[in-house]
Specification:
- The protein is mainly alpha-helical.
- Among the domains are: 138 residues, no CATH class; 109 residues, no CATH class.
- The chain is extended.
């Protein structure tokens, strides 16, 4: 559906302008009485007095410049201010209008917009080209409503000249011009309006406007129109442009609505290439879906049978939002097992997303094989909208994988509004007993998105899981996308060991490419972590930096306090990158030297230990010999 709110507002201004201009004209005519005047009744006298009062008030409210319009206590209503505005511009010449336009820039926005629209409208009556030049020169990004009001006036005073001028416009401005001219010239018959738009290669726009404003179809004989269009555009239909595509779509849409799938076959056969056929087919189905979803379904199904794929899913999903049960009954009658099952899944998922409670209530009325999936999809959708209600029904789900998905959604979404209740449910619900650690982590992570500080305090009060990781790692992970500074500030509270490794890993992953480019900040945190606790060479954080940020790691070697850790970093960098071009020869030498640091002392200690063992063995042997003697 097109949005014509801009033109609705514009029309309101123009109608209001015409009305107040009428008052201006009426106010300018003097009334006189004579002895031949008929006897006036009391009520007529009252009406005459009221009219005189209005005219006197108009004189009192008359202004000499737009600046006076900003005097609020002068006008008891916006209507009377509008009367004064149009009275001011109605008698102004071109130079006076330009002066008023300059002064209007000092007004408040709403009054400025109203004043400029009236000024430009009056200037368009006098000289539309000057009005366009004025708008384009005075404003770097002029409002479309100003261009529109010019072309509306121009279309009334000199339509041929307006059309000729619009030929040179860019597509956006041309559309505004054509739309404005069509709106202004509703006195033309449908064929004349279409011809007007056709001269500017936008006949489709005339059709769209007529379909919006008339109960009669804009295209009466689509079959003949299609044939004529194909003949006149035969040379370019291999690769139709946007205007041609839109025009063909409107004709084809009318043809299909009139003759159904048979009409579609006829028009498709007349197109020269598969590409053109696919484009037109897709566009037609999209339009027909709004008017007749059952016809769109039949059409998309037919398209699929002749090799045009892709539209059936879209039709089913859109139609399911309005009448899912009818769609489900129709797709369930399809003979092809694969297609039937796929579309049944699509319908139930769309139904669950739109109205999960109704699907839950009607699930028992569906075929037996569809009931489990319908319930699980409905509960999953309900878990996002009303997690407490979903939690009360989760025990009805038999499939373990589905139950786990729903439980995770319940925990995550319930925690955002009531973490303590979510945690109690996790502890007491028997159907999720096998997964409690993961659900606690998910619940705390859900709260972290809205209140990371509270989530961290709750996480620290929870025990670590079977892998030795506390839920505070999930708190950090949950907020790294949206609030990295808070995530970094919370790292100091994380428990040592595996929990801290995971928490730092989440932060570093989001600071380095491809997610971000804050490598220096990432290395600062990695150095801090290495100086607080050991980082195993096989940990994900270690491996990720060795492979992803080798140069940054090399630059940080001297900042690692532990010589053993420094040696392990150098050894890993050397082993991973010695054969590529990451490091220079000098850097390779540094890595070799660092990786071998302490090797000599270890060899010496090993040799000394070996000699000590030999010495002890010899002493033991001598002792045994002495005892035997």
């Amino acid at each position: 559906m097109k949005n014509y709110s801009l033109f609705g507002v514009l029309g309101l201004f123009i109608v209001a302008g015409a009305f107040v201009m009428g008052l201006v004209v009426a106010g300018g005519s003097e009334s006189s009485t004579s002895s031949l005047s008929p006897r006036v009744s009391d009520s007529d006298t009252s009406k005459s007095d009221d009219s005189s009062a209005v005219l006197r008030k108009q004189d009192q409210n008359a202004v000499q410049s737009v600046a006076e319009l900003a005097t609020h206590d002068r006008f008891p209503s916006h209507f009377e201010r509008s009367v004064a505005l149009y009275e001011l511009v109605a008698g102004a010449d071109r130079q006076e209008l330009l002066t008023h336009l300059r002064q209007s820039s000092q007004l408040a926005k709403s009054l400025k917009d109203e004043a400029q629209l009236a000024i430009i409208q009056r200037l368009a009556v006098i000289d539309p080209i000057a009005a366009l030049d004025t708008v384009n020169e005075s404003q770097p990004d002029p409002s479309p409503s100003l261009h529109s009001v010019i072309y509306r006036e121009w279309a009334v005073s000199n339509l041929d000249q307006a059309i000729e001028h619009a030929r040179s416009l860019d597509p956006t401005d041309k559309k505004t011009a054509v739309e404005s001219m069509l709106m202004a010239r509703e006195d033309l018959d449908p064929q004349q309006r279409r011809e007007l738009a056709r001269l500017l290669d936008m006949e489709w726009l005339a059709i769209e406007l007529m379909e919006q404003t008339s109960d009669s179809p804009a295209i009466q004989d689509p079959k003949s129109e299609w044939a004529a269009f194909v003949r006149s555009n035969d040379e370019s239909l291999d690769n139709p442009n946007n205007a041609q595509l839109r025009m063909m779509t409107h004709i084809a849409h009318a043809w299909v609505l009139k003759e159904g799938v048979d009409g579609f076959d006829s028009l498709i056969e007349s197109l020269p290439t598969p590409t053109a056929r696919q484009k037109i087919s897709d566009l037609v189905v999209r339009q027909v879906t709004d008017d007749d979803p059952r016809l769109a379904f039949d059409l998309a199904l037919h398209m699929r049978s002749i090799g045009f794929m892709g539209m059936l899913d879209q039709v089913v999903n859109e139609w399911s939002e309005d009448d899912p049960l009818s769609v489900l009954n129709i797709v369930s009658s399809l003979e092809t097992k694969y297609l039937r099952g796929k579309l049944q899944t699509d319908v139930l998922q769309a139904w669950a997303n739109t109205d999960p409670k109704t699907l839950l209530n009607q699930a028992s009325e569906l075929s037996v094989e569809l009931q489990p999936f319908a319930r699980s999809e409905a509960l999953l959708s309900l878990a996002y909208r009303s997690p407490q209600e979903a939690a009360e029904l989760i025990h009805e789900i038999e499939d373990q994988a589905s139950l786990d998905r729903i439980a995770n959604a319940v925990a995550t979404n319930w925690s955002m509004s009531d973490l303590s209740s979510a945690l109690r449910w996790i502890d007491n619900e028997e159907s999720v007993a096998h997964n409690r650690d993961e659900l606690r982590t998910a619940a705390i992570g859900g709260l972290a998105r809205s209140d990371p500080q509270q989530a961290m305090q709750v996480a620290l009060a929870q025990p670590v899981n079977d892998d030795g990781v506390g839920p505070e790692a999930e708190v950090i992970s949950s907020i790294t996308f949206e609030d990295m500074d808070t995530a970094v500030s919370l790292l100091a509270q994380v428990r040592d060991g595996k929990t801290k490794l995971e928490a730092y890993g989440s932060v570093l992953m989001h600071l380095t490419p491809p997610l971000s480019n804050e490598t220096d900040r990432a290395m600062d945190l990695f150095v801090d972590l290495s100086n607080e606790q050991d980082i195993p060479s096989r940990s994900m954080i270690f491996i990720t930096l060795v492979h992803g940020e080798p140069r940054a790691l090399f630059g940080a070697l001297d900042r690692f306090e532990s010589m053993d850790f420094k040696r392990r970093v150098a050894s890993s960098l050397l082993r991973t990158h010695e054969g590529d071009d990451v490091f220079t020869k000098e850097q390779i030498s540094v890595l070799r030297e660092t990786s071998q640091y302490g090797q000599e002392s270890r060899e010496a200690r090993r040799e000394a230990a070996f000699e000590r063992v030999i010495e002890l063995l010899e002493q033991s042997r001598d002792s045994d010999e002495t005892e035997s003697d």
